[in-house]
Structure prediction request, 482 residues.
Amino acid sequence: MSNPILPLWECIHDGEPRRFGNRVYLYGSHDRYGCDKFCDYKLKCWSAPVDNLNDWTCHGHIFQTRPDTDHESSVPHTDHELYAPDVVEKDGKYYLYTYIAGAKGCVSVSDRPEGPFKFISTYDYAPEDAGDDGIYNDPGVLVDDDGRVYVYYGFEGSNMNELDGNSMYKVIPGSLKKQVIDDSLKVPAPRRFYEASSPRKVGDTYYLIYSPRKGSLLAYATSDSPTGPFTYRGYIIDNGIDYPGGNNHGSICRIGDQWYIFYHRMTNNSVFSRRACVEKINILPDGSIPPVEMTSLGFEESLSPYKPVKAEIACVLIGGCFVTEKDLFRRVITQVKDGCIIGYKYFDFGEDYSSKTMELAVKIVGMGCKGRIHVLIDGTETDMPENKTDSSVNISDKEEKSDADIPEIVEYSSLSTPKAGIEIGVVETGLGDGIYRGRIQNVTGRHALYFKVDMGLPIGAWTSSFFDGRVICELEEFVFLK
Prediction:
């Protein structure tokens, strides 16, 4: 399954991935398309078998604050929106920790990881032991190897409590710790804690994944103790690089021998309608996690250019274009204007060394304006280093190095020096809806793919000004043919 990893109509964000048994479960908030508010009044759960991460199953509503046709309300004390949750297992039971907008957070239980979950209680604490008035913003829960339970939470300030492992909701007196991560004004914004606490333990090291004040980042800090203090180590991913950014929220999960970062992306040119995505990561022996780029891959090693590709899985959107929903079945890249760049990482074009050319067919919604789609790739095996990306190098590290120290990478990503790419052909598009085809140069191997769109008008001609700002088309789908 490519990114986004769930069916393209589903908006699950703030994802907490958990492996229970032989399945991976994704818990998160639920957005509503076309809505001007964050989140929904229900939580949903999806899961996939660990040996087939392309086979995601929906388990329906696992918890909700308002009744509907099929469900009663799960809580007695509020009907507000449900934000980022977490689920942990202890002694054969599964506990759901919910963050409810403007209301007391609560804990629920189920015999199954997919729920549904039954309300137990709001948090039980003395006033001096709660870090944010008992709301417990974005709770992330850790059940340590010794059975002790910790909850991390907070908005614009990082907090944690230890919970009684028998009840799972009673706060142990005196356990409150504030500034688990240093969030003072002296800390630069890209490092300073904002929200989205998510704890994990890897070996003997405790990790806290969180969203800093540069909200498109997912950062991480580590400690030798579950109670901290946690030390900032870097960021894992930035969903605002060459893409409409917004906030980010997610966590890490090991599936088999591979570690992943789960995160979300925006659609509809808003900070809403967020959809679940995933990238492979590495945790190095020193505990560091090199930053990774956004791709279209999801759980795939590479994508096939010879199968129809939905335009909306783009991981690069430059120049004001964005993904929007037409209806339940159609999402397009809209506002495609002169100079827009639409990118996909990565396609495997195979090993056809007999052909000199191939054909690209694009399905577009016409806007009464002719255009040209320049087709570019990130480079060839002869002018690229063997490792085609250098995502292990932090942006700040690159700025301190000389040009000679940085591998030459031909791609648009801001993780490297921006280049124009290598053009392999052009497809001309017309005024109306249709499928437009063009013959382009054949390529082999694995490449990032970019479409750079323009009108093909003479530069500097006085007539060109009449077309300034015109939308050329909407991109719906494409496929390569031989």
